[in-house]
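The instructor's notes for this session suggest beginning with a concrete chain rather than abstract definitions. Hand out the sequence below and ask the class to guess, before any prediction is shown, which regions might be ordered.
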Amino acid sequence: MADDDSYAAFLDKANQDTGSVQSTGRSAGKTESLKASAVDDQQAVPAELKNIDAVYISDSDEGFDPVSLKYNGKSLDGKAVLRLLNLPSDADLEEMGAKEWDPRGQYQEVVKKVEGVTEGEVKVFRIAVGGTRVLYAVLGMAKGGGRVLGVRTVAVES
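After discussion, reveal the predicted structure:
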C-alpha cells in the first residue's frame, strides 16, 4: 500500500506545472480556472453531455467535462470562449473544426454528442494555459440560442 501511495505522490509531483512559461504567478491562476466548473446551471446540462465515457489521450489522459454557459451572442468566437471560461483575454487560442481536431475519428462519439444538442457548426478551441497544459473545448450554440453547450478536457502536451 505504501508503494502505491509513494508512486501516486511521484506522479502528482511529475505532472505539476513548472510555471516555466510564466513566472508571474498567472500560471497557477490559469490552472485553477481550468478546474473551476464550466456549468452555470446544472439543470441546463443536457443528459448527453453528462458522464461521457471517453478519455482524451495525452500525457494526462483526462476525461471530458460538460460545458453549459449562458451566452446571448449570435455566434461563438475565441474572445467569447475565453470570457465564458474565465481565462485571460490574451491567452494563446487556436480555433479549428472538429475534423481538424480529430482527424482519425477517435473522439467521434464526443463530437456527435455535442452536435446532438447544438445547432450550427461545432468548433474546437485549443487554449494553451501555461507550461505544457492545454484546454480543449468542443463547443456549439444551443438549439434555440441563449447558451453555449459542449465539453472540455485538459491535456498535457510535452
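Then share the key points. Residues 102 and 108 are 8 Å apart (CA to CA). Strands lie at 55-56, 62-63, 65-70, 92-97, 118-128, 133-142, 147-156.
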